[in-house]
Amino acid sequence: MQAKTRTIPGTAVQLPVLGFGAAPIGNLYREVPEQEAIDAITAAWDGGIRYFDTAPHYGLGLSERRLGLALAGQDRGSYVLSTKIGRLLRANPSPQGKDTEGFDVPDDLYRVRDYSRDGVLRSIEESLRRLDTDRIDIVYIHDPDDYWTEAVEGAAPTLSALRDEGVIGAWGAGMNQSQMLHRFVNETDIDVVMLAGRYTLLEQGAAADLLPACEKREVGVVNVGIFNSGLLSKERPASNATYNYAPAPQGLLDRANLLADICESHGTTLPAAALQYPYQHPAVTGVVLGMRTPEQVKQNLDLAAQTVPDALWDDLREHGLIT
Question: Would residue 115 show up in a list of annotated catalytic residues for this protein?
Answer without folding.
Answer: no
